DNA sequence: CGGCACCCCTGACATCTGTCACGGGGTATC
DNA sequence: GATACCCCGTGACAGATGTCAGGGGTGCCG
């Protein structure tokens, strides 16, 4: 019997996955949580073999949760199950110690197979996604550029961002200009959009 | 027996919902589609009583699909099941003739009840969402403002938007300025963000 | 009919943005 | 030590943006 933990902030999706996986005789959903930061506690409490974790969640994201589980040295292996197949997500998830990464577009009947392979010790990655990740290139932004871009992403002015990050307005503009250059777009918003799409911020 | 159609572009979610609903003895999932524009055809082919439709989908959105079903005069009733509880979505869905609207945060065991009530002829709306919709106010934007805002949302310059919509650059700027004023924010991007959040664009 | 709201356009203005050249300071690598 | 990054800052410039005050046109409604 493979013991499973589900982490997803949407009740219907979580319930659906539970129903789906429970159809398999060798899989047993032993716990469900709706927030990323509840994952470590649930793992110590229920000792699952595999944790299926979403990335975008209300309380703490799934990559951080995965990193926490990895750091704790728990027996449980983490399988990321996410909506967005962003190359940056994949890379960051693997760095955080994830044992698998699939998108929610995966055919439903294949999920159980993936879970079994992960439980068996394999690393399972969505093949098309892995190709994208290799082809799409890596994040060219520096830490500061990412930070500034993130702060400016939802329409904050230079002055606001500068105050927020304790920087001079000129410096903020320089970082933004650099990010715009690296992403080869016209302005900060397009740059932020692209960076988000690629999973860089 | 209540016959169901599922429309969601994510295989795992669709499969999960199917598994979840199939646990109920009076519900029967007779068809599944992964695109909004396949909904009308699937309805004529399988004659379901209730269609569970997502909004954000790859091929044609769920509100358009609902409108098409309503226009066709089919016996089938549409229940929107979506990730985002945006007031604008709710309003537009109801205008398109939806018989129900729930978010994916809904507890899994309540979905079957909602489906039964919709099948029985009731209109079922997420209560907190309905409150938001009434309190949050209506879309203050004009058709043109919405259009211009949408075109400018992902970082296009004024010139680009103007060419795209066959307008003068000055006119575009006036529309944007007006939208910025109505949304009470600082710039077009924040305005677009807010409009998207509210479901206006 | 007169308002009223929307649409389209113009021109002008202050401000914000994106870019460039330039400087100084820190750290890691060879 | 030289080199190469990265970080932070300045000053200056052209161009984009947001705002305002106009002008005409349409259609709707009291």
Automatic annotation (TrEMBL), chains A, B:
The modification 4-aspartylphosphate is found at residue 54. CDD domains: LuxR_C_like. Residues 3-119 form the Response regulatory domain. Pfam families: GerE (PF00196), Response_reg (PF00072). It comes from the Bacteria. Gene3D superfamilies: 3.40.50.2300. Keywords: DNA-binding, Phosphoprotein. Residues 134-199 form the HTH luxR-type domain. PANTHER family: TRANSCRIPTIONAL REGULATORY PROTEIN DESR (PTHR43214:SF42), TWO-COMPONENT RESPONSE REGULATOR (PTHR43214). This is Response regulator transcription factor. It comes from Prauserella halophila.
């Amino acid at each position: 019997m493979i013991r499973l933990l589900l982490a997803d902030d949407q009740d219907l999706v979580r319930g659906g996955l539970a129903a789906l996986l429970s159809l398999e005789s060798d899989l047993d959903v032993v716990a469900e949580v709706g927030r990323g930061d509840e994952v470590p506690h649930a793992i110590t409490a229920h000792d699952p073999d595999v944790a299926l974790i979403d990335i975008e969640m209300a309380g703490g994201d799934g990559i951080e949760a995965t990193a926490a589980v990895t750091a704790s040295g728990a027996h449980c292996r983490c399988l990321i199950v996410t909506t967005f197949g962003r190359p940056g997500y994949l890379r960051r998830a693997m760095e955080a110690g994830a044992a698998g990464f699939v998108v929610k577009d995966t055919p439903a009947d294949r999920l159980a197979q993936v879970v079994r392979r992960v439980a068996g010790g394999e690393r399972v990655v969505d093949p098309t996604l892995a190709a994208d990740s290799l082809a799409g290139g890596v994040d060219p932004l520096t830490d500061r550029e990412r930070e500034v871009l993130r702060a400016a992403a939802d329409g904050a002015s230079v002055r606001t961002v500068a105050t927020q990050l304790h920087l001079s307005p000129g410096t903020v503009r320089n970082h933004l200009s650099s990010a715009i250059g690296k992403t080869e777009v016209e302005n900060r918003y397009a740059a932020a959009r692209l960076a988000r799409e690629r999973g860089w911020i």
